[in-house]
Amino acid sequence: MINDTAGHVAGDAVLRELGCRLALTLREAILLRASAATNS
């Protein structure tokens, strides 16, 4: 949908941003889980 309305460059930028946000979220979740496990 984004590629059709805003072009492939914009679509690629959106995918890169989503990938970065997902990676950060996963890292935070892993750190929180590891921290909780060591504090238990």
Measured as a percent range, the helix fraction is over 70%
Backbone CA Rg: 16 Å
**Secondary structural class:** mainly alpha
Please, how many helices?
2
The residue-averaged pLDDT reads 93
Domain unit count: 1
Q: What global shape is seen?
A: rod-shaped
- Main sheet makeup: none
Strand content: under 5%
Summarize this entry quickly.
With 40 residues, the chain is mainly α. It has helices at residues 2-6, 8-39.
List the main descriptive attributes of the protein structure presented here.
rod-shaped; mainly alpha
Your description of this structure?
By secondary structure, the chain is mainly α. Helices cover 92% and strands 0% of the residues. It starts with a helix and ends with a helix. The mean pLDDT is 93.
